[in-house]
Write a sequence for this structure.
């Protein structure tokens, strides 16, 4: 379209970008959302102009002074069909277009970089697999899809980045995900949009989108020194998980190496895909998730691990490709528990006091 | 008054007089009001009560807009602000919008429109008013004791585990007021089925009655779900049954499903009676039968039926399955169609009419414009991908205020002005009320249009403070709200004034066709001296022209 009139086109794009009617388009999803928005705005204007023209036009033409006697009309099936089918058609276009956009927003690409976000009254805690922890802030590289897996520690929150046109509810008790790919470096608002109590309007923060180099520098300078998986490994040992999940064929619990993303058969005959949500549920509610061939002896860890700790554990199990480390930690925990009674693992915040 | 072309004219002041006996002066004691079984007196009781609650809700709205004048939390502390918007929502929805048209105009008019002496169950009708007042008192008590800060949506687990305010008291109030709504709906359904005058077939019913019939179905089937949901919230708070608590194996999303199963149809409980008013007003002031009567009637029923199957569109971002979101989005698009049908039929009713522009008609035009915007912006929110960006922002606030305030409240005021002469026997002052209609419309646009823009820019709803870049639009909105307030205060002044000083209306000041206009203003306690026999369609202006000759100016 830009070849029609470059000047006009430039004016239009500049106006669109600079005008306070639209937030900046800072993600790959934003142009798609804005296109649908413009379509819907046009439909609304057409509808309003049509109704306005009919009402005003008839009011002028058929006001009592010009039309002293009304002509009674029953109705018209043809007209009824017209104004049933045309709006229906337009609404169905809005439905299909909206559905396509929705599936784009909520189906992350497989190569997306992972970030975890925990919502709690009244802050956002972001955790990168490399061990960078942030409060009310999220640093991301541009040009790379980022998948945010989130959960709430307490009430419903909602993670919204208007400039990316994405939003997802953070819900207690289950993981939800959203993804985006930032297109330009900058700072963008994070809002909590689900009312969550006193400081709801204070539950805001900033996404900082950076060039890949700047991001790499930030990530190297901000790491806590231990990756989420390493934290998870410590937690795994301190909770004594490795006593049963040792990978030993005779062990009381199933082997966890490479279990992530696999399909397992459960005791009740159904199968399940082991994903983040499954792992979380299996730890908190083990009696409902007994793999075939194992006794339902695992105790629940409900109330013992906070959401950050759950994320560490899940991240650890995700990265577990062999049982070598499990057995190593098994030996060290046995060693340390005889020596210091497990003081070292307790130092991590993942375990509730 | 010999032909239809000199219709809208007050009866000659020298001959028009109030009837000697009517429902207002039948008895005078307070007891005769508080123990009345007369649907018209109960309607007046409701009118006073909901006007009172509208004032309270409006005062909270003013506080909200004043707070949002500045980006910081300057006027109210965040906690106070949260209580203020919660009470604004609870009072306006449960104590004003839900009962507004049905409990006042519907109560007053449905029996008369179908040619009956009263509703089917007069005592239950009175009971419903007492339940409404009891519910209202509980909500006021929650407010006076320190407020409640759940929002009107009572989202769990916030409302069950994380707040120390008077959640149970407020929920109990809504629970009780809900029964008022159920009983009113039940009364209407039975009355419309069983008490129509001879010859008043279903397709001779005024569209006002059809709209209320559809809304009544929603009240009777939807409200119990809200009641049980609030009971579960109260039980979870008091004894921790854990239905909505994930740590006890409950599901917080279940609350959302149950709550919106009522609260989406509740939107239609509010708007259908408003649409019912618009049909009557537009027909009367264009002197024409409503275009496509059956289409308008059935679209009300279609809204009522489809309205029950769209609730999860409030949950698109809450992690429901993508495929269930797909189904609910599709159904949402379908429920938008009957509203479009209605709008076009009303516009077509004007065609070849003989239109005059009295106050009710101005309000009805305001309704058409604002409801069109409100309805079409609903399509934005029903479109799944768009909803992700727009939901929980000021866009949604603007959208439902366009429907509820721009649509419903405009319709309510149209109806109140339209039937005021019938209810009180006197006319409201015409020129100042036209001014009020125009001021309301302008104030409304200034208040809520900027909120669409704010929403697209991303400003979240229910924020006590906000980033400074949103201030300009918020100032605009607050300025508009002060104009809007003037628009609402004017009727509060001139309506009571007209009770004493208004011109005497006569039986049929608008020369409208409904049965209610063929009896005295104000009506007798028993409505009709003898049971009317209906031999004509609704909106039959030729029949009316032949009737005029025999019109009796006063009775008794």
């Amino acid at each position: 379209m830009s070849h029609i009139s470059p000047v006009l086109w430039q004016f239009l794009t500049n106006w669109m970008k600079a005008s306070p009617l639209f937030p900046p388009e800072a993600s790959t999803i934003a142009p798609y959302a804005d296109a649908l928005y413009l379509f819907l705005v046009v439909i609304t204007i057409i509808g309003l102009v049509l109704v306005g023209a009919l009402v005003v036009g008839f009011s002028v033409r058929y006001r009592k002074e010009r039309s002293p006697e009304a002509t009674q009309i029953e109705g018209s099936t043809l007209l009824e069909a017209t104004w049933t089918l045309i709006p229906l058609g337009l609404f169905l276009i809005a439905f299909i277009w909206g559905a396509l956009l929705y599936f784009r927003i909520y189906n992350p690409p497989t190569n997306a970089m992972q970030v975890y976000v925990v919502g709690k009254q009244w802050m956002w805690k972001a955790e990168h697999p490399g061990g960078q922890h942030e409060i009310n802030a999220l640093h991301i590289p541009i040009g790379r899809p980022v998948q945010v897996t989130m959960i709430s520690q307490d009430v419903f929150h909602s993670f919204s980045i208007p400039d990316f046109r994405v939003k997802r509810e953070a819900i207690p008790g289950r993981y939800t995900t959203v993804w985006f790919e930032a297109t330009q470096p900058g700072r963008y608002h994070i809002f909590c949009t689900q009312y969550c109590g006193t400081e709801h309007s204070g539950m805001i923060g900033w996404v900082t989108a950076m060039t890949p180099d700047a991001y790499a520098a930030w990530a190297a300078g901000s790491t806590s020194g231990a990756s989420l998986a390493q934290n998870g490994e410590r937690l795994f040992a301190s909770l004594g998980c490795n006593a049963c999940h040792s990978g030993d064929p005779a062990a009381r619990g199933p082997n966890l190496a490479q279990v992530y993303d696999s399909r397992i058969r459960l005791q009740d005959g159904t199968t399940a895909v082991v994903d983040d949500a499954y792992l979380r549920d299996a730890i908190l509610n083990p009696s409902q998730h007994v793999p075939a061939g194992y006794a339902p002896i695992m105790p629940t860890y409900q109330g013992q691990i906070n959401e950050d700790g759950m994320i560490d554990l899940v991240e650890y199990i995700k990265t577990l490709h062999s049982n070598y480390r499990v057995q190593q930690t098994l030996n060290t925990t046995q060693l340390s528990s005889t020596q210091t009674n497990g003081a070292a693992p307790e130092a991590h915040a993942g375990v509730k006091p | 008054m010999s032909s239809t072309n000199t219709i809208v004219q007050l009866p000659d002041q020298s001959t028009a007089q109030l009837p000697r006996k009517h429902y207002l002066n039948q008895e005078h004691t307070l007891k005769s009001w508080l123990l009345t079984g007369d649907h018209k007196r109960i309607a007046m009781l409701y009118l006073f009560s909901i006007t009172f609650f509208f004032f309270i809700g409006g005062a909270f709205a003013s506080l909200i807009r004043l707070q949002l004048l500045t980006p910081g939390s300057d006027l109210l502390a965040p906690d106070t602000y949260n209580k203020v918007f919660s009470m604004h929502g609870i009072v306006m929805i449960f104590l004003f919008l839900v009962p507004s048209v049905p409990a006042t105009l519907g109560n007053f008019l449905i029996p008369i429109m179908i040619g009956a002496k009263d509703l089917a169950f007069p005592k239950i009708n009175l009971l419903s008013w007492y339940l409404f007042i009891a519910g209202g008192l509980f909500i006021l008590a929650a407010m006076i004791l320190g407020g409640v800060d759940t929002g009107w949506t009572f989202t769990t687990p916030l409302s069950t585990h994380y707040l120390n305010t008077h959640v149970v008291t407020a929920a109990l109030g809504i629970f009780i007021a809900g029964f008022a709504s159920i009983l009113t709906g039940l009364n209407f359904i039975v009355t419309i089925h069983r008490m129509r005058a001879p010859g008043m077939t279903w397709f001779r019913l005024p569209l006002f009655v059809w709209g209320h019939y559809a809304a009544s179905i929603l009240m009777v089937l939807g409200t119990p779900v809200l009641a049980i949901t609030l009971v579960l919230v109260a039980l979870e708070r008091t004894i921790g049954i854990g239905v909505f608590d994930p740590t006890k194996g409950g599901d917080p999303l279940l609350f959302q499903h149950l709550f919106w199963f009522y609260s989406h149809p509740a939107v239609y409980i509010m708007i259908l009676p408003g649409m019912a008013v618009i049909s009557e007003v537009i027909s009367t002031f264009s002197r024409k039968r409503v275009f496509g009567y059956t289409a308008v009637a059935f679209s009300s029923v279609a809204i009522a039926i489809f309205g029950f199957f769209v609730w999860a569109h409030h949950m698109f971002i809450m992690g429901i399955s993508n495929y269930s979101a797909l189904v609910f989005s599709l159904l949402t698009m379908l429920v938008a169609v009957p509203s479009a049908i209605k709008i076009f039929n009303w516009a077509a009713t004007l065609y070849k009419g003989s239109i005059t522009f009295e106050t009710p008609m101005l309000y009805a035009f305001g309704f058409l414009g604002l409801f069109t915007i409100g309805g079409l912006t609903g399509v934005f929110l029903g479109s799944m991908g768009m909803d992700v960006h727009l939901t929980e922002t000021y866009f949604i606030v603007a959208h439902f205020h366009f429907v509820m305030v721009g649509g419903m409240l405009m319709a309510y005021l149209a109806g109140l002005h339209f039937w005021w002469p019938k209810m009180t026997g006197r006319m409201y002052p015409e020129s100042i009320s036209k001014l009020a209609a125009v001021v309301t419309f302008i104030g409304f646009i200034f208040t809520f249009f900027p909120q669409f823009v704010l929403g697209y820019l991303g400003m979240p709803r229910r924020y006590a403070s906000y980033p400074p870049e949103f201030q300009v639009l918020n100032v605009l909105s607050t300025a508009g709200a002060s104009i809007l307030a003037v628009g609402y205060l004017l009727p509060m002044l001139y309506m009571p004034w007209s009770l004493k000083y208004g011109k005497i209306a006569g039986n049929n000041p608008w020369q409208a066709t409904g049965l209610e206009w063929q009896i005295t203003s104000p009506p007798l306690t028993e409505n009709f001296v003898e049971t009317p026999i209906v031999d004509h369609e609704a909106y039959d202006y030729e029949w009316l022209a032949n009737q005029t000759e025999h019109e009796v100016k006063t009775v008794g």
In short: Chain B is about 65% helix and 0% strand. The radius of gyration of chain B is 23 Å. The CA atoms of residues 326 and 500 of chain B lie 57 Å apart. Chain B touches chain A through 97 residues (CB under 8 Å).
